[in-house]
Amino acid sequence: MNTVAAILSAAEIATVSQLLGRVHASFKDDLKDDKLNGYFSDLAVRADGLIVAIKKSTAPLNMDEADSKRDTTIRNFFTVVEASLVSLVDGEAEEGKKVLEIMNKYGRKITGEKLLTESAHIESMLKDLSTAEMQSALAKIHCGKEYFAQLTADEEAFKALQVQNNSASQEVSGAKSATVLKKELREFLNSTVLPYINAMTTIDADKYSRFSAEISREVRSANENARKALNAAKALAETPKFKS
């Protein structure tokens, strides 16, 4: 029986572990093997732990995406307000000057600040723009109120994600990384689960051969798919890039 290849990613190892668990579940009643049941219970716990670790490792990326979204809104907000200065609509230019004076206290440069500093400045700017006078001015600027509302929503979403990530970090403080859990799960499969299935198939082929064949098929398929993905990535990286 093939072993689980080292080229599999953490997500792929977690997935194949779950697939093997489903195969075992379909044969469990026929095999009646308590030791094997214990191995697969352990496998399920390890796979679930790896999946949680993978999700935690994506948190910084999600923060960057949320920050990028609010940065785009800030730039567009400035553009809309600046455009109002040349508006021919009665009163819009005058109101635009009032709003822009407030926004220029912070400037577009806040999009390049550290995350927490940017949040503080965004919240301060939104507070300054929340007065009755500024809300009235924004209402006279084309899309002014809409961009104010959008930036408010983007900042709230960013803060909520920050709280969520901080809470998750505290929960997994000292926990193993996805890389470590992936290695341990692969070793558990290759040194414990699969060798036991091989041994039992040799001892009692009539009882274990179909189960063993299904397990082997899933492992082989996972290895082949990972290898194809790796080769495709290499081919893409080696493809000459021509300037248009």
Your description of this structure?
This protein has 244 residues and is an all-alpha fold. 80% of the residues lie in helices and 0% in strands.
Low-confidence stretches: none
**Alpha plus pi helix count:** 9
Strand segment count:
0
Major beta-sheet overview: none
Question: Roughly how many Å apart are the termini?
Answer: 50 Å
* Apparent shape: elongated
Which oligomerization state do the chains in this entry correspond to?
single chain
Helix/strand-derived category reads: mainly alpha
Helix content: over 70%
Mean pLDDT: 89
Order of helices and strands: HHHHHHHHH
- Mind telling me the C-alpha Rg? 28 Å
Mind sketching the topology for me?
Blueprint: H1 10-31, H2 34-57, H3 59-84, H4 92-103, H5 115-128, H6 132-139, H7 144-171, H8 178-203, H9 205-238
Helix pairs in contact: 1-2, 1-8, 1-9, 2-8, 3-4, 3-7, 4-6, 5-7, 8-9
Keywords for this structure?
mainly alpha; 244 residues; 80% helix; elongated; single chain
